[in-house]
Give the backbone structure.
Amino acid sequence: MLISQGRDDKVTGKKLNDLLTDKGYLQTTAITEGKSYKIPTDKGKQAGIEPEERIFRGESGIVNLFNTEAQQMVVELYCGIY
């Protein structure tokens, strides 16, 4: 399924993160050295979003993993179905 089908705007990670933050699924948290990350709220975790710490170019960071149900929810939120 193409998430942008029927839409003129480009899908970006920032747009999706902002949408999920606005809907209460993600929150911004300061970690260290002026860095901040989007991490799932309790609502986000219940929806199937889980944070995972990874190493990027020698530095620790957080990525959010979305299970199948969370991926479907994001598509529906973005397309205005949810």
In short: The mean pLDDT is 87. The chain is about 35% helix and 30% strand.
